[in-house]
Amino acid sequence: MTKLIPRKGKRPPPLPAPQARRLQVYAFDPSAALELGSSKFSHATISLPWDDSADGTLRPGPVNDYVEVIDVDPCSRQFYAPIDLEAPEVLGQNGLPPTERDPRFHQQMVFAVVMKTIKLFERALGRKVLWAPQWNDQKKTYEMTLKLRVYPHALREANAYYSRSKRALLFGYFNATQRSAGATWVFTALSHDIIVHETTHAILDGLHPRYAEPTSVDSLAFHEGFADIAALFSHFQLEEAVRDHIARCGGELGQKGLLSGLARQFAQGTSGRLALRDFIDKDPKPEDFENATEAHDRGAILVAAVFDAFLAIYRNRTADLLRIAGVEPDSGASLHPDLVARLAREASKTADHVLRMCIRALDYMPPVDVRMGEFLRAIITADADLIPDDQLNYRIAFVEAFRRRGIYPENVLSMSPDNLLWDPPVVQDEDDPLYLATDSILNEGLNLVAQFKRSEIMDTAEENRRKVWYWMTQPELSFAPDEKKLQDFLTAARIEFSKGESRAVERFLEDHDADLTAFGVTGALHEQLQRELLRKNVSHFARWEILLRTLMRPGTNLVAKPGVDRAWERELGIYFQRPGADMLNTIRDSASGLSVEVHKVRLTRRAGPDGQDVRQLVIEVAQRRRGFFDPAEQCAQDKAPQPGDGVDRSKSDFIFRGGATLIIDLRDGKLRYVIRKRIDDAERLDLQRQYLQAPGELGFTYNRGEAKEPFAMVHRI
Amino acid sequence: MSDAPDPAAAPENIAIRMYRGLLGDCFLLTHRRGKDVYRALIDCGVLQCIGSNKPNTKAALDHIDAVVADLQTETGGHLNLMVATHEHYDHLAGFLRRFDIFQNFTIDQLWLGWTENRQDDEAQRIRDNGRRALSALAQVVDHADKKPFALDADKDRVESVRQLLQFYGEIDPADDGGMGLAAAPAAARAPRVPPRSCSDVLDWLKSRAKNTDYLEPGELVSFGIDNRLKAHVLGPPRTGARLLQLNPSDGDAREVYLVRPDDVNAMVGTLNSVTAPEEDPALRVAGRPFSARFTRWVDEDDTGGDEVSALYYAAEAQDRRIDGEWLGSAELLALKIDGDVNNTSLALAVELPGRQTMVFPGDAQVGNWLSWSDQRYPHDPNDKDSGETIDDLLARTIFYKVGHHASHNATAKERGLELMTHPDLVAMIPVVAAVAGEQQTKSNPDGWAMPYGDLYTRLKAKTRERIIRGDGVRADEEKAFAGSVFELHYSGEEPEPLWAELRMGL
């Protein structure tokens, strides 16, 4: 019988944790409020998880593992006191009550809305949000960004933007003397829509860092359009805002006007995108998209299309409610308050669904050079994967809406949901020699265990990325006496090198000393290998390349198998080996062939409404090529270098990228989809060439070249 | 009165002389009839040389001396008409550099855009705004020179503001206390002599000319010998709706909107706050968004136990600081002011007795061009449909002075160049590509794209290669103009003549 040991100094039983941390925010856009003269502010309450271990400890600021809110105001030379969200006064009243006069409320609001947006994306994506990495020029590697910086009072201007170089959100404030309310300060940090919009830029940048590079007019348009979609539908999810809007309409509670008025108000408030007013909730015309050549217009049409889909779905969902109430749709009759409340709730729910569909689509998009039509295909495919049985016809609503606005994907047979799915890999038969097998990477070495702490998540993601990178770039080597020994050696190398620590590499070299000898890496070569690998400030990838080069040296016992798995090259749209000596010399060489980059390897786990559990591995692969404005020069550079041909191979006019997103189903290890952009696509190269040479609207004469802060200029209100 | 030249009448011709070797405008229009001569000078300027590594720019700057000397010889110190299109250095520098020569000139008539009229309220508002903005920007550059910014991106921004400010000459400190409360007095100031800034030049010209006209779009002014030449005034646009966008959510951002007073106030406010001396408590409180009880500053070396400021000042997070981020709006303001001054250029279409037109748009940017369709020519308030449209005028254009040295955004496409369909069209571009290429910044490592590639190609196509450039090749130009209605003359036999002139009998 076990003795029960009495506890000394018995501690009281722990209190049950609260369900949520509630924080009050403004639901209304303060600048729009000034227009109406009556500054009646509508409040909302955001519920965040009380103590999500992944969020980290909450410090004053507020600062947690995702964001650090630093309230420094360089223009006023101030550091406003940070808010401590754990203070009893704050906890006791659901956060500070909304006020413009206390900077601590501004910090609270910004924090609450940023965290809410992050959680929204995480729920939809099925994994934790990671921020965009930063290129460290000295170490020649990408460094992960743990926390996003948020500056609630960064600038004195009517502007708010996401800064890529600082990985920060900057919110401005300004003095509006022209408005009817007189000379008051207007803070963009108090606009729910603007905060969601900017946070979305940051999250999208973390998911697809290459989307911020201007390769076509759709690059910026997609970023802006998507950020607006997130902001618009987040706005609709604030039931208080929807109800408040209805109350404001007074007697005019016609069903059609209910939601469109809110959308128009949204467009008014976020005045950086004036184009939105021209398209949202206006009759769609298919020529709109074709004729729209400016990024703002194209982004606005995308938002309008998604909004149309939302309205269609909402009508579907509420049709039965109206039938029960005996109301004819669009009859303009005024509605019973209870019915209005139900409709408001349906609107919020539909907004949530639509936004999640859009967010899930982000994993089904190519890694570079995004086009609007691809977004539609991604939405349909992502939704079909999660919810095979589309009873309420959500997907058809989307297809119809995009079609009516003229947004067509390329190379599809017709605009029906089935035809819009991405193509699975061509060869599905496992026994076919051209079948793309993913077991070798899945079964060996990838860490697929779900992590909870953010730093661990980041580390695991980075290690996995590196492992896949090594796996993709390793040459086909053969060690006649013992193939398995070689494969094990390489697998172990991948695992140890991906850690990026010299100690791990050292250990690896010790453990596999015998193997190296067997492969023929002895004596001076062995010493040189050791020396180079353990040098300081060598990036992980450089180390991998050093190892490969050593193994492939003519003196070793390893033989490089001729040929390369062309099937993979075809599917991914990139090249591991140059297809011909006189081709594609604009792609850089690497130790094992051509330079290839693996952007990310992420594990996702999505839950559907009927208990569907989808587990996938998303891998993004890319390659770059030097691009030239003059097609003749492009040709010359693509040819093999001859001594004395006078071609300067160190320069380029622009960077052209290709690559693919792979979606691997972890339940059966099969490759489900490959969404690619071919690196040898001459037409796409030419389109990018033309786009880059056309002057933009931002003073091309004065500001040509890669804009370091692509979002700053766009958002000036 | 018949428009066809009467063979029995005195021989009449028109000549347009472009002074070469300048990245700047200097055009002399000469109208002769029999023994009478009428001379009009349209601008006289060249780009400033800021920075020591610009040999071509420096050479061009010195070249203006020769230009002014020639003007003196040619005109004998007398101008029938002076047209100053807008207040930029590369259109007025001649007066600043060689005031000693110009000060003895007699000028019968001066034409300026209505935006230069100090008696006009709207014009005054626009001027004041612009002046305050420029003064604030000059202070920004000053401040940055005294206390340089740490981050490279911020340094680049200061440089680009400095580059843009070089178009104005010396800038006056704002005389209104800086907080944008009272507008500057409307009375004309006594011109500062010798002039040190572009606005000084205009003031002096107003005082020197016997008669000054402020031209409105749609106006028709006759000039030349026996008033046989007609000038249609195309811009700057007058309608308030075109110029002053008070509410950002109004209208289309692509139209001609000048800098808002709000933006200028914001810049001035920020500047005051940032440049205030450390110990001045009064200045620290004024213009703050939050009350004094929130005032708190933590120095970099003294964060103590303060976590948040320690995060901000952390050594590994230096590149995430935002100390100089507000310079972005300074840069944008400078760009916008530059665009505004260009957009308020006086744009003219000179109609010859044979009804052909010659277009001199100053540096009007695309927004200004678009406004040319707002009115008919001449504008008759009683009869909206009388007169011609801009399309009619452009269809008869045989001479085009290419705006803004053929940069990409000062020649409208469909509503501009594409409407110039006359087969005899010729063009003159006051540009020296080598000088434009020297204006390099970090964000613009190749300098300015003048003449802009696509535009230049189109111009060549439209004019059948009949283009005279400030840095043109003489032999090529002579060949191209062999069959033109214009006769091409140069100042002498040298390969780089001082001027090129197109003459046509009327």
Poorly predicted parts of chain B: 175-188, 245-256
The fraction of residues in strands of chain B falls at 15-25%
Please give the number of β-strands of chain A. Answer: 19
How does the overall form of chain A come out from the CA principal axes? globular
Average pLDDT reading of chain A: 81
**Sheet having the most strands of chain B:** 8 strands, mixed
Relative strand content of chain A: 5-15%
Find the count of extended strands of chain B (DSSP E, 2+ residues): 15
Structural class by secondary-structure content of chain A: alpha+beta
Give the termini separation of chain B: 15 Å
Q: Numbering strands along the chain, what is their spatial order in the largest sheet of chain B?
A: 6-5-4-3-2-1-15-14
User: Any idea what the radius of gyration of chain B is?
Assistant: 25 Å
SS content category of chain B? alpha/beta
Number of helices of chain A: 25
**C-alpha termini separation of chain A:** 75 Å
**Gyration radius from CA atoms of chain A, angstroms:** 28 Å
Give the fraction of residues assigned to helices of chain A: 40-55%
Portion of residues within helices of chain B: 25-40%
Account of the 3D structure:
The complex is a heterodimer of chains A (717) and B (506). Chain A has 717 residues and is an alpha+beta fold. Chain A has 25 helices and 19 strands. In chain A, the strands form 7 sheets. In chain A, strands 3, 8, 9, 10 and 11 form a 5-stranded mixed β-sheet that branches. In chain A, strands 16-17-18-19 form a 4-stranded antiparallel β-sheet. In chain A, helix 10 crosses helix 13. The longest helix of chain A has 31 residues. About 4% of the residues of chain A have low confidence. Chain B has 506 residues and is of the alpha/beta class. Chain B has 16 helices and 15 strands. Chain B has an 8-stranded mixed β-sheet with strand order 6-5-4-3-2-1-15-14. A 7-stranded mixed β-sheet of chain B has the order 7-8-9-10-11-12-13. In chain B, strand 3, helix 1 and strand 4 form a beta-alpha-beta unit. In chain B, helix 4 packs parallel to helix 8. The longest helix of chain B is centred in the N-terminal third of the chain and has 26 residues. Chain B is elongated, with a radius of gyration of 25 Å. About 5% of the residues of chain B have low confidence. Classes of the chains: A alpha+beta (717), B alpha/beta (506). At the A-B interface, strand 4, strand 5, strand 8 and strand 10 of A face helix 5, helix 8, helix 10 and helix 11 of B.
